[in-house]
Design a protein that fits this description.
This protein has about 325 residues and is α/β, with parallel strands linked by helices. The protein contains eight helices and 25 strands.
């Protein structure tokens, strides 16, 4: 079974970080978003991946090939970003002979028993109850969690079950024919060819879909959600640095959980809680909490709360919340 991971988006809501870094490579709890997705799929024995790349796609390709040299991978370039269904259609030549595929969006971290997906006799979608479903694809379900209707970003939702960007589709040729029909007839929602619309058209052809509820789901498209995800994952076992194995730093207080990268220099500072620090960071005379700090970043005499700081960044003397991209230097003295 092949896994298709669309990662061609530009990550507009995470500017300025995504000017130089594709959203799937943004760090959370000590590793890039896409690693959480790929690692979880590998855990259940999936090893054949198709990545639909576009914006800064060479960085994603380099990262995947370097991190997962033993995976069977294919990379398909989506020249024009025209929606999630269009991304799948772009990869049609790599999947048209498959009996079934897994689709996982490359910027969404999910916590679910993937064996439920693999063992489900029908096609299935991941869902999660949300407070405001108007920003998502929405699934309407019957009493046995069978999908009765799917709608992309409904203005008046009839369900609060959001579709979380994780799917198993068994009738792959039908899916591709459905998307082809949408493209040929320019059938768009919110200006794009939506995967939700394609799946609804399959539902209209009496192809059954089962809904599987995920325990946690984070669409890491905004700074606030990125930090929330970082805090949640650091609080779970296995993501934060072991408090007993953190290297000794001069006059540093760690308030756990934190994740500290390799070869960092930290002195006379208070770090935590819920802080992820990349490799080769230099932090002096600072207080950092509830933040993500990139690789090779220098902080001197700063107080940072609820901040995302990109790689190769230098900041001196500040006390506020920041959202700063890569390759930046700021001096407030």
């Amino acid at each position: 079974m092949k896994v298709v991971i669309p990662v061609a988006g530009a990550g507009m809501r995470l500017r300025p970080h995504t000017y130089t870094q594709p959203k799937p490579l943004m760090p959370v709890a000590g590793k890039p978003i896409i690693r959480f997705i790929v690692d979880k799929l590998i855990e259940v024995g999936l090893t054949d991946f198709v990545f639909v790349i576009g914006y800064l796609g060479e960085k994603i390709r380099d990262f995947i090939e370097e991190t997962y040299p033993d995976l069977q991978t294919e990379f398909v370039y989506q020249e024009t970003r025209e929606g999630s269904a269009h991304a799948i259609y772009t990869a049609r030549e790599t999947i048209e002979d498959e009996d079934e595929i897994i689709i996982a969006f490359g910027d969404t971290i999910f916590d679910v028993d993937l064996h439920q997906f693999l063992d489900c006799p029908d096609s299935c979608i991941g869902v999660k109850k949300v407070l405001d479903p108007r920003e998502f694809g929405v699934a309407e379900l019957d009493s046995e969690d069978r999908v009765t209707r799917m709608v992309e970003k409904p203005r008046i939702p009839k369900s609060n079950m959001a579709i979380v960007g994780l799917y198993k589709v068994k009738q792959v040729p039908t899916l591709l024919k459905t998307i082809e029909y949408m493209v040929q007839n320019d059938l768009r929602t919110v200006g794009e060819f939506q995967l939700t619309d394609a799946l609804q058209r399959m539902l209209d052809q009496d192809i059954p879909f089962q809904a599987i509820t995920v325990q946690n789901w984070f669409d890491c498209g905004r700074k606030e959600v990125l930090l929330e995800t970082n805090a949640m994952l650091l609080s779970q076992r296995g993501y934060a640095s072991d408090m007993f194995n953190i290297p000794e730093f001069e006059n540093v207080i760690f308030i756990h959980p934190v994740a500290i990268g390799a070869n960092c220099q930290i002195a006379n500072s208070i770090i935590g809680p819920h802080v992820s620090i990349g490799d080769n960071a230099n932090i002096q005379l600072s207080i950092v909490q509830d933040s993500i700090i990139g690789n090779f970043t220098s902080l001197h005499e700063v107080v940072l709360k609820h901040s995302v700081i990109g790689s190769d960044t230098s900041i001196r003397g500040i006390d506020m919340s920041l959202n700063i991209g890569d390759n930046t230097e700021i001096d407030f003295h």
